[in-house]
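ok trying again, last paste got cut off:
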Amino acid sequence: MAGVGEIIGGALIVLGAFFYVVGAIGIYRMPDVFTRLHAAGISDTAGAGLLIVGMMFLAGFSLVSVKLAIILGVIYFTSPIATHALAQAALHAGLEPILASKRIMIGPGAHAEPASAPKTTKRAPKKAAKRKAPSRSAKRASKPSGQKRRAWS
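nice, full thing came through this time. structure:
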């Protein structure tokens, strides 16, 4: 007969797997990079946390539980930081989130007409000016030399 710890551990593992499945559906269904990152980050942190806590219940109080607790701490610190870094990289690459001013064509609240006034950001003009200037590697690649150089821009 299963003990209380095994029942709680099994329930937490099933709940963690459910978070991963919902996160995978969210990654598939979300319209842009930022909402996909949100779905991935939340499901990764919550799903992995529940799975590891469930495994800790199954392992009982032992060295394995201590190791699982350390892994849980590492995941809780690194997963949100990695998600934030990916979102910042997407912003710096020029991707913009879908705002309320754009058309949303999927889901129960889909509408075909755009919202009132589009919101502008202060970053957009600066990024456009930066893109027009050639990068250092592009200048280097345009100079004639004995060997071919690869532009990393």
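cool. Residues 63-92 form the longest helix (30 residues). The chain has a mean pLDDT of 77.
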